[in-house]
Amino acid sequence: MRGRLVIAAAALTMALTPGAAWAAQDGDDRTTGSHRPETSVSREDPRTDEGVPGYELVTLPNKNVPNFQRRTVYCPEGKKAIGGGAEARGNDAILVGSFPTDDGRGWIGLGRQTTTDNVGISVFVICAYV
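^ thats the sequence. predicted structure below, dont judge the formating
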């Protein structure tokens, strides 16, 4: 059993390590999922040496709102959302939704509590010039 845990931990580490990847094969091996050690994966990095241009994390701090009420945080003028998230806070809190705004300039979060009529919601958006 311990051997299986070590293998699973190693596979998880490999999956979570940036730049580590298992190469997909061309031809017949592709359908079997086999891996040839001599095959490498190359990928282009769209970032410059300075990182993502205009990278900024904008946070809408936790606030209690009625169940299912949307909370929205926006990027500063000229920037777009490249990611985001939300958190429902409380003992019986459930995050119902976490998604970008239709115009791509912000992030929306909403949730609910199972035992009360309001829920604490925090929302985060990652912004950049794109």
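The chain has two domains: 2-32, 56-128.
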